């Protein structure tokens, strides 16, 4: 996904400090392009950037500067920008707005490392992470310590997920372990750099002294679990790695379990006292939210909402 954020006309009005009626007039004239999702009008981040860039031409703002300005403005107005690619986060944003219709929660569909860096730079409120450290066998805490140096953070569990190999139905190549990736006749499909799965892959290869150059297809990347599973289903690759949940959604793909991973939310400790973060925590700890996530299958919510680390 190349444009991870989008806005409603109401959010645009708040960001630009203009009335909703003025926003609709701009949309009607085509000054700001828009699109529909069902009955809802949405404006993409890139189109908003173009409009703001044109309006601020004398200042010569770059698209990157505009993006940072927009993100910080959202956060300053007590909105939440939540980084991560897990579908449970989409459900979480829906609950946030249901609990408080004045709270605007926007999603940034980036990997774990980019999310933590956005949190460090002040352009995100919460970042999801599932980064396995090959030296300690621990999830997330070592990376938070490295990527947010000197920051007081809290790490709260969202879910646990099963991670494993995606293989063709019946596992015709007999793929069961990491060493099978270097076998002749086996083609791999990788994840993008910065994603939690890519870190897991590279850390295991390093620990097992497997040269990635010996893996056919290692350089071929996809941007999501579903895309990796689809590549295996279509015969583009023999094996990829991702969540069991995604494997269940793609026909003709079997799942070979490797490990259970911890998927956490990272935020600044000083933010916990704010009402919007208190709302987020209340949702995570509610039976209603846990039951909905459990109903989807493929998730372990036994520690959802628990603090699993503080730095």
Task: Give a verbal description of the structure.
With 311 residues, the chain is an alpha+beta fold. It has 2 domains: 6-160 and 264-310, Periplasmic binding protein-like II (D-Maltodextrin-Binding Protein, domain 2, 3-Layer(aba) Sandwich); 162-261, D-Maltodextrin-Binding Protein, domain 2, CATH 3.40.190. Helices cover 39% and strands 22% of the residues. It is built from 12 helices and 13 strands. The chain has helices at 9-16, 20-29, 45-55, 63-76, 87-99, 112-121, 141-147, 196-207, 225-233, 244-249, 275-284, 287-296, and strands at 6-7, 35-37, 40-44, 80-83, 105-108, 126-129, 153-168, 190-191, 221-222, 239-243, 253-268, 299-300, 307-310. The strands form 3 sheets. Strands 4, 5, 6, 7, 10, 11, 12 and 13 form an 8-stranded mixed beta sheet that branches. Helix 5 (87-99) packs across helix 11 (275-284). The longest helix is centred in the first third of the chain and has 14 residues, at 63-76. It is globular and about 65 Å long. The chain starts with 5 loop residues before the first strand and ends with a strand. Residues 56-67 have low confidence and may be disordered.
- The gyration radius over C-alpha positions equals 21 Å
Number of domains: 2
Instruction: Give the low-pLDDT segments.
Output: 56-67
Residue share in helices? Answer: 25-40%
Class inferred from helices and paired strands: alpha+beta
CATH architecture of the largest domain: 3-Layer(aba) Sandwich
Q: What name is given to the CATH topology of the largest domain?
A: D-Maltodextrin-Binding Protein, domain 2
Q: Oligomer, anyone?
A: single chain
Quickly name the level 1 CATH class of the largest domain: Alpha Beta
Elements, N to C (H/E):
EHHEEHHEHEHEHEEHEHEHEHHEE
The proportion of strand residues reads 15-25%
Query: Major beta sheet, specifics?
Result: 8 strands, mixed
Shape: globular
Total strands: the figure is 13
According to CATH, the homologous superfamily of the largest domain is: Periplasmic binding protein-like II
- Measure the end-to-end span: 32 Å
Mean pLDDT: 85
Number of helices: 12
